[in-house]
């Protein structure tokens, strides 16, 4: 049973070094100290007396630290807690850990505080229990990635009998200080846990629960995972009271909590991109609107011709995408429909059917929004295989009423529009959150048009593309009937700066408006954000430091949603966002169910996008794949929120039945399966050796390995068809001409040109938790062998894949000449898709997204030109040139323009897929027939 230490008989010493004379600075550490001290001393937490919590900031000598710890150790008779954040140094010969002080130097561990000495001082004290929290790199920047053996040696030396050690990172990772976030990654999650608590968890947060929750939160962001060491019963020692605890019988039934750090439910998202900067590294140029790498796996394929092995089982669910700053990425949902990736959503998007006529009043007494078009389109089909993916509206209807029923494997990451980075929540959130602009409610490619939502018109752009001015519509209201004003929109966007309170959402608006982070957020800064002006209640003006032609697309994401200041509950806002849309929150049981009911104060006449046909919308969370598939096929639910839901068996059954196959759609997703060829790895530093790989690759066989034609079309270049600048006729390596077959003659000629006529050896890196990716790697190895290129396959732990591939020095050292990846955009432009992969200014020592290390000044200049361009056609021309130069460099091997398989319930009306939603259905246009 958990026991809370007696605060009067306990002590805490918090040590942190943020300023260094010879190492990179870590400003977040100073924030860690003050916030953690406040959390431990809070009456509802541990209630430690302030005089019993010693804070040592930027210590200059080891003696300064050791004397303070010794004093606390002598005073404490119950529990002693010691915390350190800063650079971690490792003595290279003995593997001893040293803690960084202000004067510490690289390769000179004697300039730090020996951990062993600190341990001895703690052990010499009178406290019956000791808690050690270390937020630092064991390997640091001195040794890079250590071997498992050396790391374990360091871990062992930190163990103290009768104590509990919680370390921020595993043996092969850096500790992270994410740019744009107030705290370091590990401590930030610890503070969030102390502040928000664990719904459904115990009254006291014992150390094992703390570990499990922090572990799950960091894993969900693709960041390095903490480790623990405990002796005796230290794991049952409580660190604080649970802020979310409610007595039995009080309130709705809470969700279960994870006591052990099992892999969390994922958003089926993009490849978690490399985590943010390790301690000390400053970010290079601000990142773009971040692409993603969603995970694969398509429908049961025919047996690959290159291997006698049995087909892989569906891949385990990948870790969620998303971390912060450069590594932060929105998680696009896709499911394993027969091992077929089902990818969803991109940016804040189309919301309804502009062609729908006004119908009879619904039960709220309101009319659905009036059509702004001249009339109906031609009647669409009522069913049919792939019908909703062919530019038509399936089962078109203006009938309102009924309940639209969603099921999902997972709850939202956050319902808070400024925090969510799950793609399917971007889509769903439009039921209760509006933006200044959004996308046209039209099928397919036509949905890419930006249209006004809360604003009367799209922006008036002046000042060379740096000033955006909007006038708000009349009649736009909150769920309490009060008007939505320009100040509400500004406040909602300003919340993005409060990364210590409401982190994890996209930060591209922050980077576009305030790249220097001069503003501290609405909860701390007495000033407002100067980049946004509100001359009156209906006018809002954005002033960018430099032009960005995608700025309105950023505003069209949930990040641009208004928030009423009086209703902002900070971290708890996710449990009950205040609605600006046609629906508002009814009952919500986290992790179990959600009900949206009509917002009777919504004015249909002020909303030309949303039709709001259903009377009620429900979501039931069910992590049992077979149960979900059965419920969908039986019609208990209309669709899966994450665009998945059907098991492999269910998909196979559906495809073999004419009735059931008529409910399947197979749209493009804007996602690309490809391989990066890092230019630092010999002999791939030679363009002719890289071209030999491209010509030798049998992409037809890789398509089969990935899942056959349902998994996607063979990609001749790097730019998916629905992204501006993609050229359907561009075929630089005759990929389409040869239908994906290899060109051995040209491959052999390129091998001669690079001085390797007999071939060469290299290594293919691939995630070990995605069997479909492994089969693709096997296929590629088989085809390369035919021209003399021998490739070893290294299956890397899925949780560390992006960390490893995001460190060029590690890639070079390991000889990873070919890296299997998947990628997709937040919004469909070359800035969002291509820039993270090809701009040399995004090459960095960690969190690197330009895995191929493509370094071309012409490409960099073209990005600058394209991003500043307001004309989408002209920008597309620049991105087309960039795409061609990427092909010329042979830095990437494009494999598939991916597709997904979606299930369409028989009751659904107004169903169509949208390129803007990466092939997913446009949720706010849906209705149901009874």
From TrEMBL:
PANTHER family: ABC TRANSPORTER SUBSTRATE-BINDING PROTEIN, PERIPLASMIC BINDING COMPONENT OF ABC TRANSPORTER. Residues 11-218 form the Peptidase C14 caspase domain. Residues 243-326, 358-387, 557-576 are annotated as: Disordered. Residues 371-384 have a biased composition (Low complexity). CDD domains: PBP2_clavulanate_OppA2. Pfam families: Peptidase_C14, SBP_bac_5. Residues 249-319 have a biased composition (Pro residues). Residues 449-840 form the Solute-binding protein family domain. Signal peptide: none annotated. Transmembrane segments: none annotated. InterPro entries: Caspase-like_dom_sf (IPR029030), Pept_C14_caspase (IPR011600), SBP_5 (IPR039424), SBP_5_dom (IPR000914). NCBIfam families: caspase_w_EACC1. This is ABC transporter substrate-binding protein. It comes from the Bacteria. It comes from Streptomyces javensis.
């Amino acid at each position: 049973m958990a026991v809370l230490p007696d605060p009067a008989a306990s002590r805490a010493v918090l040590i942190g070094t943020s300023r260094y004379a010879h190492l990179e600075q870590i400003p977040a550490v100073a924030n860690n100290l003050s916030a953690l001290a406040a959390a431990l001393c809070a009456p509802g937490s541990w209630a430690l007396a302030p005089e019993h919590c010693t804070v040592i900031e930027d210590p200059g000598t080891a003696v300064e630290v050791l004397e303070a710890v010794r004093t606390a150790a002598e005073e404490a008779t119950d529990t002693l807690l010691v915390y350190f954040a800063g650079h971690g140094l490792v003595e290279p010969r003995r593997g001893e850990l040293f803690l960084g002080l202000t004067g510490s130097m690289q390769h000179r561990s004697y300039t730090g505080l020996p951990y062993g000495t600190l341990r001895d001082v703690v052990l010499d004290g009178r406290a019956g229990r000791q808690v050690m929290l270390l937020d630092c790199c064991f390997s640091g920047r001195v040794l890079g990635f250590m071997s498992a053996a050396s790391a374990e040696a360091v871990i062992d030396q930190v163990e103290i009998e009768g104590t509990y050690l919680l370390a921020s990172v595993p043996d092969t990772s850096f500790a992270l200080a994410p740019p744009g976030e107030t705290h370091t990654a590990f401590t930030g999650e610890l503070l969030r846990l102390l502040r928000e608590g664990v719904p459904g968890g115990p009254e006291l947060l014992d150390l094992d629960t703390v570990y499990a929750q922090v572990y799950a939160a960091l894993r969900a962001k693709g960041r390095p995972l903490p480790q623990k060491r405990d002796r005796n019963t230290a794991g049952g020692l409580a660190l604080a009271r649970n802020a979310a605890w409610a007595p039995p019988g009080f309130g709705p039934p809470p969700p279960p909590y994870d006591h052990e750090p099992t892999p969390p439910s994922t958003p089926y998202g993009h490849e978690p991109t490399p985590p943010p900067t390790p301690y000390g590294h400053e970010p290079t140029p601000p990142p773009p609107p971040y692409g993603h790498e969603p995970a694969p796996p398509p429908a049961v394929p025919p047996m690959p011709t290159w291997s006698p092995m049995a087909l892989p089982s569906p891949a385990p669910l990948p870790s969620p995408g998303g971390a912060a700053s450069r590594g932060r990425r929105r998680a696009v949902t896709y499911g394993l429909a027969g091992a077929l990736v089902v990818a969803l959503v991109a940016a804040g998007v189309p919301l309804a059917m502009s062609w729908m006529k006004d119908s009879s009043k619904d039960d709220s007494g309101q009319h659905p929004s009036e059509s702004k078009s001249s009339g109906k389109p031609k009647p669409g089909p009522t069913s049919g295989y792939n019908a909703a993916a062919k530019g038509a509206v399936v089962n078109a209807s203006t009938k309102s009423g009924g309940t639209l029923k969603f099921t999902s494997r997972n709850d939202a990451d956050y319902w808070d529009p400024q925090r969510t980075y799950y793609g399917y929540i971007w889509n769903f959130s439009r039921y209760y959150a509006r933006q200044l602009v959004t996308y046209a409610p039209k099928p397919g490619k036509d949905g890419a048009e930006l249209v006004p939502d809360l604003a009367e018109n799209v922006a008036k752009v002046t000042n060379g593309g740096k000033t955006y001015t909007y006038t708000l519509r009349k009649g736009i209201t909150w769920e309490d009937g009060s008007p939505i004003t320009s100040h509400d929109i500004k406040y909602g966007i300003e919340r993005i700066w409060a990364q210590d309170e409401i982190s994890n959402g996209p930060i591209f608006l922050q980077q576009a408006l305030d790249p220097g982070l001069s503003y501290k957020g609405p909860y701390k800064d007495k000033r407002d954000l100067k980049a946004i002006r509100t001359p009156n209640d209906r006018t809002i003006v954005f002033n960018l430091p430099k032009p960005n032609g995608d700025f309105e697309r950023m505003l069209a994401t949930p990040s641009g949603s208004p928030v009423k200041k009086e209703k902002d509950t900070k971290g708890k806002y996710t449990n009950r966002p205040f609605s600006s849309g046609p629906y508002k929150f009814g009952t919500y049981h986290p992790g179990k169910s959600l009900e949206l009911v009509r917002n009777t104060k919504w004015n249909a006449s002020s909303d030309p996008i949303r039709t709001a046909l259903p009377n009620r919308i429900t979501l039931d969370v069910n992590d049992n794949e077979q149960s979900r598939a059965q419920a969908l096929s039986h019609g208990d639910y209309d669709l899966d929120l994450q665009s998945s839901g059907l098991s492999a068996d269910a998909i196979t059954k559906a495809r073999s039945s004419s009735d059931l196959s008529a409910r399947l759609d197979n749209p493009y997703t804007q996602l690309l399966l490809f391989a990066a060829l890092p230019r630092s790895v010999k002999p791939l530093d030679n363009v002719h050796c890289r071209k030999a790989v491209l010509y030798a690759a049998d992409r037809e066989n890789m398509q089969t390995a990935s899942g056959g034609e349902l998994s996607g079309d063979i990609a001749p270049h790097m730019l998916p068809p629905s992204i501006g600048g993609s050229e359907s006729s561009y075929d630089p390596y005759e990929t389409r001409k040869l239908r994906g077959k290899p060109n051995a003659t040209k491959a052999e000629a390129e091998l001669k040109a690079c001085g390797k006529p007999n071939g060469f050896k290299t290594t293919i890196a691939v995630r070990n938790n995605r069997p479909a990716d492994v089969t693709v790697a096997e296929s590629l190895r088989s085809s390369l062998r035919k021209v003399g290129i021998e490739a070893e396959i290294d299956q890397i732990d899925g949780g560390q894949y992006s960390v490893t591939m995001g460190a060029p020095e590690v890639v070079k050292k390991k000889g990873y000449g070919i890296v299997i990846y998947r990628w997709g955009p937040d919004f469909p432009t070359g800035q969002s898709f291509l820039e993270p992969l090809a701009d040399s200014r995004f090459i960095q020592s960690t969190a690197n997204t330009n895995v191929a290390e493509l370094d071309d000044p012409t490409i960099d200049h073209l990005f600058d030109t394209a991003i500043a361009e307001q004309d989408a056609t002209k920008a597309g021309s620049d991105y087309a040139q960039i795409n061609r130069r990427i092909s010329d460099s042979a830095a990437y091997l494009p494999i598939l323009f991916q597709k997904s398989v979606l299930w369409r319930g028989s009751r659904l009306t107004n169903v169509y897929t949208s390129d803007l939603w990466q092939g997913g259905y446009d949720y706010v246009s849906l209705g149901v027939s009874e």
